[in-house]
Write a structure and sequence with these properties.
The protein is 9% helix and 44% strand. By secondary structure, the chain is mainly beta. The strands form seven sheets. It has a four-stranded antiparallel beta sheet with strand order 3-2-1-28, with no helix packed on it. Strands 4-5-6-7 form a four-stranded antiparallel beta sheet, with no helix packed on it. It has a four-stranded antiparallel beta sheet with strand order 8-9-10-11, with no helix packed on it. Strand 16 and strand 17 form a beta hairpin. The protein starts with 5 loop residues before the first helix and ends in a 9-residue tail after the last strand.
Amino acid sequence: MARVPAVLALALTLALGSVTASVAEEPAVTGLRDVVLVGNSADGTVSFIDSRTYENLGSLDVVPDLDEILAGMNPVRRAAYEIVKQQAGGDKFVDDAHVSPDGRTLYVSRGNLGDAAAYDIASGRQLWRTHLDGLKADHAALSADGSTFVVSAITAAKAQTLDTATGRVTGEFPTGTYPHENIYGPDGSRIYNMSIGVTSLPKALDALKGAKQVTVADARTLKVLRTYTFDKGVRPAVITPDEKTMYAQLSYLNGFIEFDLEAGRTVRTVRMPFSAAGAALKADDYPQNSAHHGMALNGANDKLCMAGTIDDYTAVVSRPGLTTDGFVHYEPGALPYWAVTAPGGTHCFVTLSQRDEVSVVDYRTAKEVARVKVGDYPQRERAGKVAADALPGLTR
C-alpha cells in the first residue's frame, strides 16, 4: 500500500475546499419493515435485508453520479481521489449508510468520494450531495429524530454535522487524528467519536500516527466535553445504556478492552484466540491496522458480538464476566469486518467482506443461522426500518 507523505496530504487537504450542498421532524408512519442495511463499498450499493426472514429485499445504487463527479474533478482533487483509492486498496464508495425514521430516505457517507448524499428510496433519486472537508468521508451516525447526520471528515481531523433536509453543513467539532466511528450516546445528548491515527504508517512508527482518542461532544452545541487518550487507534466500540462502560477494539489488538467512562481508564483487556492464519500475519499486514474490527451489543445488554477479522470468526461473549460462549468459524480469508445487532436484539449480522456475504449469528446459541448474499465488498451495516411502499424502488 502506497503511503502519502504528511506534507503532501496536508497540502492536498488545504487545497480542497468544502462544498456544502435544515431541521425537519419526520412524520410518524405505519407500514415500516425492520431491516439491516449493508453498505457494499466496492460496487457503491446498499442492500436491504429483512432482519427477521433474512431475505435480501434488494439494493439501491448510491453512486449514480460517479462518472459526472470524476469528470468534474480538477487535477488536484483527482490526484487526491487516486491517492485515497490507492490507500484504501481500491474503490470504496459506501462507508456508512442510515435510513430516516420514516423509512423513506437513505443517507450515505461516500468514502473515497469524500462526500455525503441522500436518496429517496422509492425512486432512487438523489436529494442532495455535500462534499466534506478533507479527502475522505468515513463513519457516520444519524440522530434519533433523523434531523442530523454526523460524518467523520477523516483527513481534516473533525466530525461534521449535516442537516438531513438539505445536506447543509451545520457544524463541526475537532477530533483526534483520522476520526473513524461516530456514536450517539444512549439518550442522544452526546456524540462519541473514535480516532484511529494515520493507518498508512507502519506499526514501528505508531508514535507518529497522531492523536488516538475518543472525543465526546455535546450533540446540540458540538462543544467538546471530554477526551480519552489511547496508545492505539480506537476501532469499533459499543457503549452501555447507563453510559458508564465502553467496550472497544483497538488497532493491532486481537481482542477488546472494557473501559470505564467515568474513571477514564481501561478496566480489562480481553485477548481472543488467533487462528493459524491470523497468527502468521505480520502486524503491518492487518487490514487498516485492525486485527478485530466489528462489535455489537445485544438487546438484553448481556452479550457482545465480536468480529474476528484476521481470524475469520465471530465470537459471542457474555458480560459482565466477558466469557466466550462460542465461535462461528468462516472459510479462510472471509474477512469478517463489521457487526450490528438486528432489530429485535437477538441476532448479530456480520459482514464477510471478501465473500460478499452477511453471516447471521444467534446470540443465544452462538450459532450461524443464515448466510445472505449481498453486493461487492460489504462493510458497514446499520439497523433501521424501511417503508414497505418504498421497497419497489430497490433493484433485485
